């Protein structure tokens, strides 16, 4: 399979992703026997629930130090010391020191560390991860009234890998609604899977929050569940104003994605995000960095 490459905003160079569990993903999504297993049990919530339970066991603490070393994580960013975590999940959804992720003052910011794609009109894009694939925004939103408000809107996909910081934040200041859960299976959201079927994004279990803002109007925020994501935890209070960059929640073990949707003509996306996304190339950027500015 073609390697997963992305543009790193900070180094100005193309890099190749180290895919955690790559051999399993290639087997599950590329091998006929793997696909049988995928549809028989891997996509089902009980499998991910079991895996999340496994990562909560004290014995998994031994995985933390080798993981940090293998993926060269910066321990100086951690709010707590690496040896303070009771199990791997504790480490996985660790908090960072506030100064590790400064929040840009005059722009909407990326809601998570990860690899991002941005599209000015999501419904006009032909070829997301694979030629011919297109966003089904109505199915993704799963609410006809909301869809009418956001159709033709700007969409930013923020994809988190298992090696990333796994808390997600608000991209701009505002007042958030209660979170709605949309049930579904749990397919992988790695490009290995999405190159075959983008529809996993609107078939998977996901959550939906509407953020009322002054600068950008209504902003729709979704968190996408995925294989081996133990759960999606929301830590904000509905109806209570939040600052830009405030924590919204976190994913337990597993890589996943957040999706941010703006109404049409509300945001001008950052130029590097637009340029690389037009080539179906993700850019790596961290939470708090510039995603776009008001129009």
From TrEMBL:
Superkingdom assignment: Bacteria
Cited Pfam families: PS_Dcarbxylase
GO function term, MF aspect, one: phosphatidylserine decarboxylase activity
One GO term of the biological process aspect: phospholipid biosynthetic process
Entry coiled-coil feature ranges: none
The entry's keywords: Decarboxylase, Lyase, Pyruvate, Zymogen
Signal peptide range: none
UniProt protein name: Phosphatidylserine decarboxylase
């Amino acid at each position: 399979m073609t390697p997963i490459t992305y543009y790193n905003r900070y180094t100005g160079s193309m890099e190749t992703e180290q895919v955690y569990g790559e051999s399993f993903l290639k087997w599950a999504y590329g091998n006929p026997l793997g696909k049988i297993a995928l549809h028989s049990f891997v996509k089902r919530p009980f499998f991910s629930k079991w895996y999340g339970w496994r990562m909560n066991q004290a014995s998994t603490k031994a995985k933390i130090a080798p993981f940090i070393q293998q993926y060269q994580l910066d321990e100086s960013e951690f709010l707590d010391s690496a040896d303070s975590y009771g199990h791997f999940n504790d480490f996985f959804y660790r908090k960072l020191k506030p100064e590790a992720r400064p929040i840009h003052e005059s722009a909407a910011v990326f809601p998570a560390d990860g690899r991002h794609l941005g599209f000015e009109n999501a419904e006009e894009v032909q070829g997301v991860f694979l030629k011919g694939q297109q966003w089904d925004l109505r199915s993704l939103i799963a609410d006809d009234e909301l869809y009418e408000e956001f159709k033709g809107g700007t969409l930013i996909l923020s994809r988190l890998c298992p090696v990333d910081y796994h808390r997600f934040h608000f991209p701009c200041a505002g007042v958030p609604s209660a979170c709605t859960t949309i049930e579904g299976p749990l397919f992988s959201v790695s490009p290995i899977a999405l190159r075959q079927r983008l529809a996993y994004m609107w078939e998977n279990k996901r959550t939906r929050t509407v953020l009322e803002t002054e600068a950008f109007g209504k902003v729709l925020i979704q968190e996408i569940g995925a294989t081996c994501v133990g759960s999606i935890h929301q830590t904000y209070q509905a109806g209570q104003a939040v600052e830009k960059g405030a924590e919204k929640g976190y994913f337990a073990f597993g890589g996943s994605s957040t999706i941010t949707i703006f109404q049409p003509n509300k945001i001008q996306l950052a130029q590097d995000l637009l340029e690389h996304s037009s080539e179906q190339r993700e850019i790596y950027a961290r939470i708090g960095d510039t995603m776009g500015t008001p129009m």
